[in-house]
Amino acid sequence: MHSPLLSILIPAKDEAGNLPTLLDEIAVALESIDYEVIVVDDASTDETWSLLEQRASGDDRVRPLRHSKSAGQSTSVWQAAWAARGVWLGTLDGDGQNDPADLPNLFERAQLDGVTLVAGHRTNRRDDWIKRMSSKIANKVRSAMLNDSTPDTGCGLKIIRRDAFLSLPYFDHMHRFLPALVQAQGGSCVSLPVNHRQRGTGKSHYGLNNRLWVGLVDMVGVMWLRRRSRLPIANADASVVTSSVTRRHE
To answer: Which of 61, 92, 132, 139 falls 20 to 30 Å from 193 in CA-CA distance?
Structure first.
């Protein structure tokens, strides 16, 4: 079975109007990179699934998955990560607001020594005032409480090693706290500025209640996880220890 270098993970719910252009843009952006795209249809009620089936029939790099009932963004990304075959994972949203043209730059930075996660930073947001306000408040509170040194954890554009992602604790909404979770496991994170665009078609599934307030509650849980996290300690091989003790008594 072919194992690409990079697996692109896209959670999508009712994004039939945005996915064709997004997939075309990914193909152009990653023309020189061995990749696959896993799109998770999170129980869409539009033509998302039929579109993905048709796309996959003509492009073996596209691997669609489907939820029988909506499970949310974090579950979609988590299940796609387990199905992925790449050494690295790249994530972006299915609404077209993340620009695939930024993926090569993030991927290049991720492959430098010592980097576990590269997160996009939307320096010029193209959202309505509710999303901008809730994100601004959440980012300030999160930065103060978690000290994760990441200005924009809500950006869908990220590159992370697959093995590092799969070692993280799984819970709903975990995608909002990836830098803090990675750091708790001893990994390092960097942020790079990325382009941000207006949504193509459809409407956002997030508002003040399921973005800001839920995020603040989850933050308390992440603080507990970080406090309880312990990094592995190297163990000496039993034969080495025995040999060392024997030599000391000779």
So the answer is: 61
Which residue matches tokens 């220890």? 241
With left for phi above 0 and alpha for psi between -120 and 50, is residue 96 left, alpha or beta? left
Q: Nearest-5° angle of CA 224, CA 84, CA 74?
A: 35
- DSSP-derived letter for residue 98 is B
Residue 242, H or E segment: helix 238-249
| β-strands 158-161, 189-194 pairing | unpaired
- Is residue 141 a contact partner of residue 219, using CB atoms and an 8 Å limit? yes
| Token digits of residue 163 | 């093995």
Write the single-letter amino acid at 201: T
Q: Give the pLDDT confidence of 53-64 residue by residue, as tens digits.
A: 999 999 999 999
Q: What is the pTM of this model?
A: 0.83
Sign of the torsion angle spanned by Cα atoms 174, 178, 180, 183: positive
